[in-house]
Specification:
The protein has 171 residues and is α+β, with helices and mostly antiparallel strands. It has six helices and seven strands. The protein has a four-stranded antiparallel sheet, with helices on both faces. β4 and β5 form a beta hairpin.
Length: 171
Amino acid sequence: MVCSVDRLYHYMLSGARDLGSILEHGLLPLSARPESDRWKQMESGRPGFFEWIYEAFAKPIVQLPYRHSGVFLTPIDFRAMAGVKIADLPRIVIPLDAVDPLTASVTYMLNGQRMIRPLTVEDLEDTARIWSEDMVRAWFAKDRTMMFFHVPQVAAYQEGGIPVRPEWVER
């Protein structure tokens, strides 16, 4: 199985350059840094994108008004998959209990339909049974602009972000 049922992963797509800030402040939603170039680029290029993501990926489970852009994680252990480039990136391994299940959902596409489930061990176990390595290989980065759109991910909307401990970092 390539989907974990007891931990989540944050792959550092830009390398370790933001690691110091992440260790100091935790994993924060992109909207927590409105001065950042990446936030400005997203907001100007796709206005309302993060509200749409919240509505589609989490609101049916979280059932709170939209407050921020969220933090996105995945249960996929790409290091268990030979030859996948993302596996070479630094990552943060987050124990499942570090994410507030009342403010998060597990989501993925299956048979053309967006699946949204509560963040529980049971729902991650079901997800892991569905998402074999072959399925992940077939659907990961199918849309290069939204690499994780089809495959399992966790959309987390807890206030204050997700605290990170140094021992969770894997280079």
